[in-house]
Write a structure and sequence with these properties.
GO terms for molecular function: copper ion binding; cytochrome-c oxidase activity. The protein is an alpha+beta fold. The chain is built from 6 helices and 10 strands; from the N terminus they run ααααββββββββββαα. The structure holds copper (II) ion. The site of copper (II) ion (CU) has 7 residues, from loops.
């Protein structure tokens, strides 16, 4: 017969040793998962070069810190169970019928908290998406065609009568709309520090936009496994002053090429 004076039976579950152990683990793991999921990742991606990327980082911080207690709770139970006293036998230990498991209050709290967290993520996410869509309609934006192929990106510039480059040039503080497609398989166009990533699908155009706000050289990568040399499908974007951008555009040979899509339509 178990001792019914222990916290297992008096309803004072918070006094239980294993509950305390799990609580400590929970706090430590929340901090660890939150920190790795935000600061370590943010640092690996480099300083943001657009407001879009600043928003991405903010969203990442909010979502990760909101989710890390949940992930940490499951991890704390898994790790805590390994650390605790083992129970051997065919039947559950007598103390397994405890207050939390059968408490309607605990179950209701858990359901309400998770539902609120899902709702929060949905609303914040929809607001962020809506901001991106608004930029696509900016009348001042310049439009650049982006074509992915195994294993490089090509850019066609507007109003340039056929300037095509492999390194992307952009004027600073100027909204840009990218029309992205692929010549062969699926790729994903990723401007790392500008916070833009969108699929490049063959036979289809996807649109995305950004306003770079920092002069410098930033990374472009393919973010969709697209074949043998996928890992090498990376290049640079040079964000420069409007004058430098226009000088560069004027210095490029006029290939007379139309955009790849127009080429295909003409063939
Ligand atoms: Cu790829």
């Amino acid at each position: 017969m178990p001792d019914t004076n222990t916290p297992y039976f008096t309803g004072q579950w918070w006094k239980r040793k294993d509950v305390k152990r799990h609580a400590v683990l929970w706090v430590i793991l929340t901090a660890f998962i939150g920190y790795v999921g935000t600061e370590v990742q943010v640092r690996a991606m480099g300083a943001p070069a657009s407001e879009t990327m600043e928003n991405v980082i903010n969203l990442m911080r909010i979502f990760t810190w909101a989710a890390s207690p949940v992930a940490a709770f499951a991890a704390a139970i898994a790790i805590g169970a390994l650390m605790g006293k083992r129970h051997y036998g065919d039947n559950p230990p007598p103390e397994s019928e405890h207050a939390i498991r059968n408490s309607p209050r605990a179950i209701a709290l858990w359901i309400v908290v998770s539902a609120l967290m899902c709702l929060f993520a949905l609303v914040v996410g929809l607001i962020a998406l809506q901001k991106d869509d608004a930029r696509l309609l900016d009348a001042k934006a310049i439009h650049i065609n982006v074509v992915g192929q195994q294993w490089a990106w090509n850019y066609d510039y507007p109003g340039s009568a056929g300037v095509r480059s492999e390194v992307l040039h952009l004027p600073v503080d100027q909204p840009v709309v990218f029309h992205v497609t692929s010549k062969d398989v699926k790729h994903s166009f990723w401007l790392v520090q500008l916070g833009v990533k969108i699929d490049a699908n063959p036979g289809q155009f996807t649109e995305t936009s950004v306003t770079p706000n920092k002069i410098g050289t930033f990374d472009i990568r393919c973010a969709e496994l697209c074949g043998l040399l996928h890992a090498y499908m990376q290049n640079k974007v040079i964000v420069e002053s409007k004058a430098d951008y226009e000088a560069w555009l004027a210095s490029q040979p006029d290939t007379g090429k139309t955009t790849w899509v127009e080429e295909k339509a003409a063939a």
